[in-house]
Write a structure and sequence with these properties.
The structure holds two protein chains of two kinds. Chain A has a single domain (2-60), classed as Ubiquitin-like (UB roll). Helix content of chain A is 12%, strand content 36%. Chain A has one helix at residues 18-25, and strands spanning 2-5, 8-11, 33-36, 39-41, 56-64. Chain A has a five-stranded mixed β-sheet with strand order 2-1-5-3-4, with no helix packed on it. Chain B is 33% helix and 14% strand. In chain B, the strands form three sheets. Chain B has a five-stranded parallel β-sheet. A three-stranded parallel β-sheet of chain B has the order 6-7-8. In chain B, α3 crosses α4 (146-158), α5 packs parallel to α6 and α7 packs parallel to α9. Classes of the chains: A mainly beta, B alpha/beta. Chains A and B meet through β5 of A and β4 and α3 of B. β5 of chain A pairs antiparallel with β4 of chain B, so a sheet runs across the interface.
Chain lengths: 66, 304
């Protein structure tokens, strides 16, 4: 399954939830937030939100800024 | 007099007594209240552009700030082992203020605000409840887009955020943002990162008067924070003399040759400006006014 992850194409082995994607990325414990198709998917829903072909996924965190 | 702020809104907060015997130890200023948030320091500092995290940490400490602003950006997926800024911020004593820097539309600013809140909720930081809203016009000026800012402010207030609005130094849009529910309006002294200080003191003064003077529909308690453009400590003194409740800056500290010393100077400047605004400066005059008495002079005075 192909998705767009942080602006890059990414091939997933099979169906995946947001939680499984974060596990693949090694970010399951990182403080981050996830958007799918420009809508926030809250942490409580990561286990149940299934990704679909062509989804645009953003995984963001906090960085230095002013 | 343009430079002196209006005493009516300056005298409403508790005035710490100056004890000449303990000077130069400055008495603690009253806390800054923004919506339901209370800050002990009226200086809010950014966390960007530091040469390394250790310098950032030391500069935040030296600034005395208990609130710092951060940005929301993509995870760097190629370098997941990379260190996070969160490991270098004392989250137990800092309130994190997430910002929407880099947003050029109201929709994007609302998205980014929600993402920031999501992360701060996971961290259990009180900063989850608020946002520094920036909707910018273009990359060259980084000046606020007033229409987009107003639109995003309304949406975020509806969504339960305490919204601190980065704004241009215009009293009309400032009042519109306040009316839309902004908990604080933060006029720009000059463009972000420009170091030009308070480019238009008259405009900043009008923003402050509009938001704080009862006869202009304002309230003395309404917090106005000058945000952006601070290049040096005297810019902070100037902002506070104009009647600001606080100052937010980043580059002026982060890009100074000695950021930690500059952070210390900024902290002192905020105190200096706060007290100056309430001490009642002398009026400006064209000609001199001798400090030593004329009576008893033994000299020849030209023209007499």
């Amino acid at each position: 399954m192909r998705i767009e992850l942080n602006g890059q194409h990414k091939e997933l082995d099979g169906p995946a939830t947001v939680a499984q994607l974060l596990l693949t990325l090694g970010l399951e414990r990182a403080p981050c937030a996830v958007e799918v198709n420009a809508r926030l998917v809250r942490k409580a829903l990561h286990q149940t939100h299934a990704l679909a072909e062509g989804d645009r996924v953003e995984v963001v965190t906090l960085v230095g800024g002013g | 007099m343009l430079e002196a702020a209006n005493a009516r809104y300056l005298m409403t907060t508790h005035q710490p007594t100056i004890n000449a015997r303990t000077a130069p130890v400055s008495p603690a200023l009253p806390p800054l209240r923004i919506g339901s948030f209370t800050l002990n320091s009226r200086l809010v500092v950014g966390t960007g552009k530091y040469r390394d995290y250790a310098t950032m940490q030391a500069a935040i400490e030296a600034s005395g700030a208990d609130c710092v602003t951060v940005a929301v950006r993509r995870e760097r997926l190629v370098d997941a082992e990379g260190r996070s800024i969160l490991d270098f911020l004392p989250l137990e004593r800092l309130t994190i203020l997430p910002n929407t820097a880099g947003c050029f539309t109201a929709d994007d600013a609302v998205r980014v605000s929600r993402l920031g809140r999501e992360i701060l909720e996971q961290l259990g930081n009180p900063g989850a409840g608020w946002v520094k809203l920036e909707v910018l016009g273009d990359r060259t000026t980084l000046l606020p887009d007033p229409v987009g800012t107003l639109e995003a402010c309304k949406e975020l207030v509806k969504d339960g955020f305490t919204v601190l609005c980065y704004s241009s130094d215009d009293p009309i849009i400032a009042a519109r943002l306040r009316d839309a529910g902004a908990a604080s309006v933060m006029p720009a002294g000059s463009p972000i990162g420009s170091g030009r200080g308070i480019a238009n003191p008259a405009a900043i003064r009008m923003v402050i008067d509009r938001l704080k003077l009862a006869e202009q529909g304002g309230s003395a308690e309404y917090p106005v924070i000058v945000d952006a453009g601070v290049g040096t400590a005297s810019d902070i003194v100037h902002a506070m003399e104009l009647g600001a409740d606080g100052v937010l800056l980043n580059t002026g500290i982060a890009h100074a040759q000695d950021p930690v010393r500059m952070a210390h100077a900024m902290r002192l400047a905020l105190d200096a400006g706060w007290h100056t605004a309430r001490a009642g400066r002398i009026p400006r005059k064209l000609y001199a006014n001798a400090s030593s008495p004329w009576e008893g002079v033994i000299t020849h005075i030209p023209g007499e």
